[in-house]
Design brief:
Length: 274
């Protein structure tokens, strides 16, 4: 028997994980508007009827009927609807080993034209009660994200090599410790001690390999997890604060408002509108 392996394919499967944080079908009008929105997840929109607007800086993009859009994680934008629009939306993360979204850092809103049938199929699957259709829908989401990754230049040889590049054992171990569990009470010194290195050594190695400080990474992890929990779970704000290691709800709300310019409750309401 002759066996061939595609090790790069296997590595890609092991590295990236798709999480659908929240989804919904919305019939919207002029009430669908918000300014300076920035989320730790990517937004996939199927525009089924009507149209809306997405604003980024001085540029305005029409969200047109029959088209599909991806707004990458970490992208600051505004949106509005002047008349009427039907949309099927998915808030998703494609996470790598570091727990960050694959599309974070992509600086443009991505668009696919003439996808009426894909939108109708996605809605049909979304409205189904069958488990098999849930699997099919997740496959469809993967397909759309793959197309956007190619369109955004994220699947070229150089880009994928960088995305799949293994960090040192020390930094990979730090990623693992920092994410299990994600907590606001964790400190770099504590994690460095568990890794049997000095805080200085950890900081230098981490910054050299990732381009960011361990402290900034830990803070981003906490904020990302908070945003995802507010969407995907119905826990009270106090319960979310406790799960994330904050001393109380007041401190969590103060922290969240400072980072996102709104309270956790307001963020939950806004993000669940699409």
């Amino acid at each position: 028997m002759e066996l061939s392996e595609n090790k790069k394919m296997l590595q890609t499967w092991k590295t990236f994980e798709l999480n659908v944080i929240y989804a919904g079908f919305a019939e919207t009008g002029p009430e669908w508007q918000a300014e300076n929105v920035c989320s730790p997840f990517s937004r996939l929109y199927f525009i089924l009827k009507g149209e809306g607007l997405a604003h980024r800086g001085e540029q305005t993009l029409r969200l047109r009927e029959g088209h599909i859009y991806l707004i990458p994680a970490g992208l600051n934008f505004s949106y509005s609807c002047t008349d009427y629009m039907e949309q099927l939306f998915f808030h998703v993360n494609v996470n790598g080993r570091n727990g960050m979204d694959f599309f974070r850092g992509c600086s443009d809103i991505l668009e696919k034209e003439g996808e009426d049938e894909r939108g109708r199929l996605a809605l049909e699957l979304y409205q189904s009660k069958q488990a098999a259709d849930a699997f099919r829908l997740k496959g469809l989401i993967w397909e759309e994200l793959a197309g956007f990754a190619e369109a955004g230049g994220l699947c070229g040889e150089a880009a994928m090599t960088a995305a799949l590049q293994n960090c040192s054992g020390l930094v990979n171990s730090f990623f693992l410790l920092a994410q299990n569990p994600v907590s606001a009470s964790r400190h770099i010194g504590e994690l460095a001690e568990k890794l049997h290195v000095s805080e200085s050594t950890l900081s230098k190695r981490f910054r050299a390999e990732t381009g960011m400080t361990p402290g900034a990474y830990l803070s981003q992890l906490v904020l990302d997890r908070a945003c995802r929990m507010l969407l995907s779970e119905d826990d009270s704000i106090a319960a979310v604060a406790e799960k994330l290691g904050f001393s109380d709800q007041f401190y969590f709300t103060k922290y969240f408002r400072r980072q996102m310019s709104m309270t956790p409750s307001a963020y939950r309401r806004l993000m669940r509108r699409g």
